[in-house]
Write a structure and sequence with these properties.
3 helices; Vacuolar ATPase assembly protein VMA22; two-stranded antiparallel sheet; mainly alpha; 50% helix; unfolded protein binding; Vma22/CCDC115; single chain; 4 strands
Length: 175
C-alpha cells in the first residue's frame, strides 16, 4: 500500500522538477531576449520596453478556467463567443433599420468588427518595426504559460498524494 504512494510521489516529484527546469530555461531565455531588445532600443525616445509602452485597452487572448477540484487550465480566447455575443446584442426592432430610398428595401446597418485576434506585440510597433529579439522574448514567455498551469496542477496532485499517504499511514499531519 505504501509502495503505491511512494511510487506516485516520486514520479510526481520528478515531473515537478522537470517542469521547474523547463520554466527556468524559458524564463531566462525570455528575459535575455528582452534585455537584448531593450539594448537595441536604447536610443529611442521612451528607452526601454516596459509599462510605458503598454496598451491598457488591449483585450486578453488567454482565459484561465479554474475547476471545482482546484486544478486549472489556460485556454485561448476564441472569436466565436464574441460573434455570438455581438449578434445577440444587436437590436431586433426597426428603429435602427436603414431604408434604401431608391429600392425601398429595409436592411440592418452593418457592424464592422475586427474578427482576427491581435497579437499583443503590435502595441510596441508595426509589423516590421518590432525587433526580432522582442518577438523571441514573447515566444519564450508564451511557452511558460502552459508550464505554469502544469506546475500548479502537479503541485495539487502532490498535495493530494501526501494527504492520501497521511490517511493510509494514520499520520495526523506531516506538513
Amino acid at each position: 500500500m505504501h509502495d503505491k504512494h511512494y511510487d506516485q510521489l516520486v514520479s510526481l516529484l520528478a515531473k515537478y522538477d522537470t517542469l521547474l527546469d523547463q520554466l527556468q530555461q524559458y524564463l531566462s531565455m525570455g528575459y535575455y531576449n528582452l534585455s537584448r531588445a531593450n539594448y537595441h532600443n536604447k536610443d529611442a525616445i521612451r528607452g526601454y520596453y516596459g509599462q510605458d509602452y503598454w496598451d491598457a485597452t488591449y483585450p486578453g487572448t488567454k482565459l484561465v478556467d479554474i475547476k471545482q477540484d482546484g486544478t486549472f487550465s489556460i485556454d485561448q480566447v476564441s472569436n466565436d463567443s464574441n460573434d455570438k455575443k455581438g449578434a445577440s446584442d444587436m437590436p431586433t426592432n426597426t428603429e435602427n433599420v436603414l431604408r434604401n430610398r431608391s429600392e425601398g428595401i429595409l436592411r440592418q446597418p452593418e457592424i464592422e468588427r475586427n474578427l482576427k485576434p491581435k497579437d499583443p506585440i503590435y502595441m510596441f510597433g508595426g509589423l516590421l518595426s518590432v525587433p526580432s529579439s522582442l518577438r523571441q522574448s514573447q515566444s519564450a514567455f508564451q511557452r511558460c504559460i502552459p508550464l505554469i498551469s502544469e506546475l500548479v496542477n502537479c503541485r495539487k496532485a502532490l498535495l493530494d498524494c501526501l494527504d492520501g499517504y497521511e490517511k493510509s499511514a494514520g499520520i495526523s499531519n506531516i506538513r
